[in-house]
Design brief:
The chain is α/β, with parallel strands linked by helices. Helix content is about 40%, strand content about 15%.
């Protein structure tokens, strides 16, 4: 069979395009964070991970522009060779201090952090144990490692205990969980997970992509839950609260040093461009100088979750400014997305395999810069469409 035959035979996306219900790869003509323009249509954006609204903050913008003027648009090489600037090292030191760890290492994307960290640490004879709802980048890092992958039921520490008990005691073990899960907005029970890992001699890595800038005064899930010393590695990304592109891993200095010299996704990729590095550093300044943004995004999350529940929507286990509206049926999810879009609300439809077959949903997420009028507009449109479709 011709390798490309499956490409010609796959029509699912084209069928959605033809029906007018295709919601992906939609080009934004203008964006001001909490509102976007697509064609001639203005929409309130509740599908972004720009939690603190810093992509348009003057200090962050100017820092990126100034760095680009000084150093150009790219380092044109990997961190391993000619792609390390003094600014990379300065940012790593600042991030380590901010996260309460000895050292940190920045990568060009958050995806590369998980792929490189896990695949470099977990070798033959080792085990990597993940929550079943972990992000795809964690799954791919496990696949690229030479270790054995085990999984436990989502946010069920007792099942993690059961899985670890079945692994040879002398084997190397790395448990990897999301701090905040990106689809449901729920928080990992880290205190219980830390205790179980320590009892079984397992190391713990937490993907805090969606919690840095949101929980723990902005420092993430382990600070929020008071177990930072019990978490060995903390991963963060720059494409969300940090308003840039890239990511980092923070932990003890010997472990970070090892990852730096063994993570293929770091060694064989070009480094973060100067403008992105400067934007992250400026965003960190804003987080420290304007803590009210962190308070505001959490207040908005609590308000919207409460209001959606009052209207009768199923918000699942959300505990954060990520609030799913669980619909269940895939076609009904696309229809709801389309009607909301026409009413001026931008959401993200999420269908299998990103969620279980019966849990298709609209993923909504909120920013510190959303106004009360914008939030009221969103709730008004959800109520209108929800009643029209018999959802509430």
């Amino acid at each position: 069979m011709d390798l490309f035959e499956k490409c010609h035979n796959w029509t699912e996306a084209r069928d959605l395009m033809a029906s007018g219900f295709y919601p992906y790869f939609m080009p934004l003509d203008e964006t001001e964070g909490s509102e976007v323009t697509i064609g001639d249509k203005r929409l309130v954006m509740i599908g972004s991970n720009n939690y603190l609204g810093l992509t348009t903050h003057p200090k962050v913008r100017e820092a990126a522009i100034a760095a680009t003027r000084q150093f150009g648009t790219s380092c044109t090489g990997s961190r391993f060779l000619n792609g390390t600037l003094a600014w990379h090292l300065e940012l790593e030191q600042r991030l380590a201090e901010y996260m309460g760890k000895e050292a940190a290492l920045v990568f060009s994307t958050g995806y590369q952090v998980n792929v490189g960290t896990i695949s470099s640490l977990v070798g033959r004879g080792d085990y990597v144990i993940t929550d079943k709802d972990d992000h795809a980048s964690i799954v791919d890092g496990c696949r690229l490692s030479f270790g054995t992958l085990k999984r436990f039921r989502h946010n069920v520490p007792e099942d993690l205990d059961r899985v670890l008990a079945q692994i040879p005691p002398k084997a190397g073990k790395l448990v990897v969980v999301d701090g905040v899960f990106s689809m449901a907005g729920d928080i990992a029970p880290l205190p219980a997970i830390v205790e179980i890992c320590q009892r079984h001699g397992a190391r713990l890595m937490v993907d805090d992509a969606h919690s840095i800038g949101v929980l723990g005064g902005g420092k993430g899930t382990s600070i929020h839950l008071g177990v930072n010393d019990g978490v060995d590695l903390i991963m963060g990304t720059f494409s969300k609260s940090f308003a840039s592109l890239g990511g980092f891993i923070a932990g003890s200095e010997p472990v970070i040093h090892y990852i730096q010299h063994h993570a293929r996704s770091l060694i064989f990729s070009a480094s973060m461009p100067p403008g992105n590095v400067a934007a992250v550093s400026a965003a960190l300044d804003v987080m420290l100088e304007e803590p009210e943004r962190i308070q505001r995004v959490n207040e908005i999350g609590d308000h919207m979750r409460s209001e959606f529940q009052r209207l009768g929507f199923n918000t699942g286990p959300s505990q954060t400014p990520i609030i799913p509206i669980i619909i269940g049926d895939q076609n009904a999810t696309f229809l709801t997305w389309k009607l909301l879009f026409e009413e001026g609300v931008y959401t993200n439809p999420v269908i299998p395999p990103a969620v279980p077959a019966s849990l298709s949903l609209l993923r909504t997420s909120y920013m510190a810069t959303h106004t009360n009028d914008q939030l009221a507009f969103v709730l008004e449109k959800f109520e209108k469409i929800g009643k029209m479709l018999g959802m509430i």
